[in-house]
Amino acid sequence: MDVLSFRTEIRRLIELRQEGEYWDFKKEWYQNKSDLLHDIICMANNLSNHDGLIIVGVDEETDYTICDVANDPNRKKTQDIVAFLREKKFAGGIRPTAYVQPLTFGKKIIDVIVIRNDRNTPYYLTDQYQGVFANNIYARIMDTNTPKNASADINVIEKLWKKRFGIDATALDRALLFLQKPYDWVDSDDGKKFYKYAPEFTLEDIQAEGGKDGYEFYLFNQCDSRPRWYDINIYYHQTLLYSLGGATLDGGRCFTSTPRTDGISLYKESYHHWDISYKYFIKGSIEYTVHLFYITDDMDEELTARQRFLEC
């Protein structure tokens, strides 16, 4: 999300004049570090499948007015938050990912601590830090955080573990999760690959139907620019979950999913077509995940072809 869209989202939350399941308001920056840690853990363990947002510089007691935090003596930047979390002992050595996004409203500055949503829940400490206890699982439920001297209810903890293992996810989301572990996929006799811990998930790459033989600009950056197009199909049992394009590069030395296509119209009269088109991957998208899935680390020629492809 770009800064402008993010600012619009934060304004919308402020105008709601209430806290919620993934956002919280603070008038000023934390004086007590254990409070900061506790709130970050709670937001990392929210159940909304949304980034947690701690909005610093909004006063609930004065009808959610904005308070400038530019000169707050306790103000922190992203580097400070990262260093603070790095010092704490989290289970498995996996810490929440957090950063600080400053935003300007009028002439006033607020800070938003963004805690990224991911599948590493539940986050909890293995060593106590001040009043934040070891092995207590804190969570954000509706607009309330679990108290420091307690753990979340068992049903909440269950949901957080299900999230980690993908049990609560759709079939496509689970497939996307499994594709992030390419070494756990096995070749079958029929030319497909299957995920060894859930063999009902399979993947195949077959020559594209319809005799596709056109060129894309990124092919001309290869030593061998001849096009070879494929269909990459992801199945759950016999159900096709997703199909995307694939291509071999440099005469078959490298295989990749094909990037998305978009474009820009420069003139009003050309709104119905693109004057400039471009290709791109979005980190975390299924196209980019499949691109990473096919990377092998045993051939220099593949590495060269892949680098030529990505630098186009």
Automatic annotation (TrEMBL):
Superkingdom of source: Bacteria
Domain Schlafen AlbA-2: 19-147
Keywords (A to Z) from UniProt: ATP-binding, Nucleotide-binding
Parts of the chain that traverse the membrane: none
GO MF, one example: ATP binding
UniProt-recorded name of the protein: ATP-binding protein
Naturally occurring in which organism (per UniProt): Candidatus Scatousia excrementigallinarum
